[in-house]
Model the fold of this input.
Amino acid sequence: MTNVPASGHPVPGFCAIDFGTSNSAIALPVAGQRVNLVEVEPGQRTMPTAVFYALEDLAPDEAPQRLYGRAALGAYVEGVEGRLMRSMKSVLGSSLIEQSTDLGEGHAVTFLEVIAGYLRHLKSLAEREAGHALTRAVLGRPVFFVDDDPVRDAQAQAALESAARQVGFTEIGFQFEPIAAALDYEATVAHEQLVLVADIGGGTSDFSVVRVGPERRDRIDRADDILASHGLHVAGTDFDRHVELAAILPLAGYKAKGPAPVGREVPSGVYFDLATWHLINAVYALPRVLELRGMRSFYADARLHQRLMAIVDRRLGHALLSKAEAAKIAVAEGREAAIALDAVEAGLQSVLGEGQALEAIEVDLERIVQTGLETVRLAGVRPDQIDAVYLTGGSTGLAPLAQRIAAPYPNARTVRGDRLASVAQGLGLHAQRVFRGL
Done:
């Protein structure tokens, strides 16, 4: 629904932001009940949620240059000295949000400042396209930032709101991301339907059962049409972690055994940290590095410990997790993935096949499917009463996941939205109705 009116003039004063774990977008409502997604990078309407703090050639007292999106990932891959931040949304609701993290060269920043900086960048791009300041915004949020902890969940939303206010938004609303996706889908339907929206992104898997239809789409208050919402803090980045633990990190000692006769399994904590975006940099702290060096005697095979230390000393954690993500995508597209690990050791490689990938993520797949079914139960309807399963979010590109989610609903047609943009589009429509009274 990325339509631009003939006049091309944006509606002033407000926007909608889909701040995602993996990718983000910003929508400008335009004249009429239409939405335009801002070009956040050349030719792109969505952008990786990534920030790179470049430290090369800094003058004394000069702040690190910040790069965003694909430029941030490119700088990291090219080996520019600095610090990459990804999956910042995962920190919301945790004690890390107000903590400072070291960038190097005597510079530090809090995670809240990282998020605020990213939102400021999105806002500046939207203001450049709009031609005026934006002070009001609707932000998307998952059904649960934090599973089974209402206090921390509320803290997560409050932290995101605080970041938005820091960058100049004075009037802020929130909408559940799967509800936003339902609004985008609703613009295409000709008659009333009961829809299960499945928004499977990078950090959360969110479901809503929503009643949609042409006679309902102009209502501002849609509370009565939302029959149930439910979510799980498991999604794409969890799949990446499982893939890395299954296909990459065993070559560096994950689940390796110690010397005979005891043969105790080596400690696994470092491997879980290396497979989790926002924990990787903690592994590079000097006390942790010294601790890991001292663990050589824990390994029966010295080569495994050498590879682990190569990963740590060369700071390859983010690069390896990116390789796990690329391998997951390759398998989702029906290809066996060869994973080159020459940066760890010359000639080292691994292979990921569909069977291994599905086995690695099976527990999470089933939890996601059951969360969808629980959402339908909470809505007070039967699976056979669902008219459509609407799939959105980057992780729905994984065909076995999409098939598993849709399977329990025998009478539902499966509809695929724009995996990366439908939430932003729906948030834009919601912003129209909230701020313009449409």
Notes: The CA atoms of residues 5 and 32 lie 8 Å apart. The first helix runs from residue 69 to 77. Residues 255-354 form one domain. The mean pLDDT is 89.
